[in-house]
Amino acid sequence: MNKFHGTGVAMVTPFQADGQVDYDALQKLIDHLIDGGVEYLVSLGTTGESATLSKEEKKQVFSFTAKAVNKRVGLIAGIAGNNTLDVVEDIKAFDTTGYDAILSASPHYNKPTQEGIYQHYKAIAEAAPLPIILYNVPSRTGTSVSAETTVRLANDFKNIIGIKEASGSFELLNQLFRDKPEDFLVISGDDPISLPMIAMGAVGVISVVGNALPKQFSNMIRKCLKGDFKGAHAAHYSMIEFTRLMFAEGSPAGVKSALKTLGVCGETLRLPLVPVSADAVEKIKNQIGLIGK
Predict the structure, then answer these.
(1) Does 292 or 72 have the greater pLDDT score?
(2) Prior bond to 272 cis, omega within 30?
(3) Does position 222 have pLDDT exceeding 80, yes or no?
């Protein structure tokens, strides 16, 4: 699945001032990302505020995005939840037109055991019409998908092709890279440590920062994948403070502020998320000025 090598972007969902989905801005964002050279896009992941969209809104966003992308780059749909039966039904009802894979975060809130996580993904794999990419993000879900569970799933289900890894645990990563099947994709889900993860064997990143800086971030990732880590250092270090600001007051509030500065979309979020502070806005603007467009 080489189309998932390089930089994927977990797209924000632009909203109008009244909270409705801003499809004109979504089109502008998609073009901004593709023109910026990213390899693929993710629609309605966590960064897309999927938790606050209705099922009908999700259906409309998925459809619009597929048509707007028009197969210019790879496209992944975020479909997840903590009710396994409901996730399976959503996947069965999903219109796969224009999509290449499904990204599904492990269940949040319920805090399942590793066996529960395995059985959750087993049910998804057996129902899915597209390849599945697991997503381990314990800072949001409350539990981590262990390396053992990931490797077990990778070996048991051929349509589970990779994992977006955002645990930040190098102990887990060491074990995962050592034990995984050779063709199983490990994708960084953590912008600040994408460079060292690629050095370990990751095939790229699904990025938040890439929403705002697609050209700079994807160029850095491509250098890493070519083994030119020295050449990637300058870009990596230049984006450290900007990346920190993207998450300092919550995501995607930080990156929506950056996108507003860049003229791509507004900064409106849906509650319980709120825009970043005026102080953060100024710091983000300053960083964009330093890094450049």
Answers:
(1) 72
(2) yes
(3) yes
C-alpha atoms less than 13 angstroms from C-alpha of 147 in its C-beta half-sphere: 14
Q: Which of 121, 135, 180, 283 is catalytic?
A: 135
The two three-digit tokens of residue 198, written as one number: 């690629």
Dist CA 270 CA 288 (whole Å): 25
Number of other CB atoms surrounding residue 291 within 10 Å: 15
The average confidence (pLDDT) of the chain is 97
* CA angle centred on 204, ends 203 and 208, rounded to 5°: 155
Distant-in-sequence, close-in-space partners of 31: CB < 8 Å, separation ≥ 6: 68
Q: Is 164 noted as a catalytic residue in this protein?
A: yes
Helix, strand or coil, per DSSP, at residue 91: helix
Under a CB-based contact definition with an 8 Å cutoff, are residues 62 and 95 in contact? yes
Neighbouring residues of 5: CB distance < 8 A, sequence distance ≥ 6? 39, 185, 203, 204, 225
Catalytic residue among 58, 164, 260, 283: 164
Contacts by 281-290, CB closer than 8 A, 24 or more apart: 281/257, 283/245, 284/242, 284/245, 284/254, 284/257, 284/258, 285/261, 287/241, 287/242, 287/245, 288/212, 288/242, 288/258, 288/261, 288/262, 290/238
CA 54 to chain centre: 20
Mapped onto helix, strand or coil, the DSSP state of residue 122 is helix
Nearest C-alpha neighbor of 188 from the set 173, 210, 206, 169: 206
Q: Look up tokens 């500065």; give the residue.
A: 261
Is 109 a known active-site residue? no
Any idea which residue has 């995607």 for tokens?
Answer: 252
Residues 219, 214: Cα–Cα separation, whole Å? 8
Task: Give the HSE-up count for residue 155: Cα atoms under 13 Å, Cβ half-sphere.
Answer: 10
pLDDT in tens, 114-131: 999 999 999 999 999 999
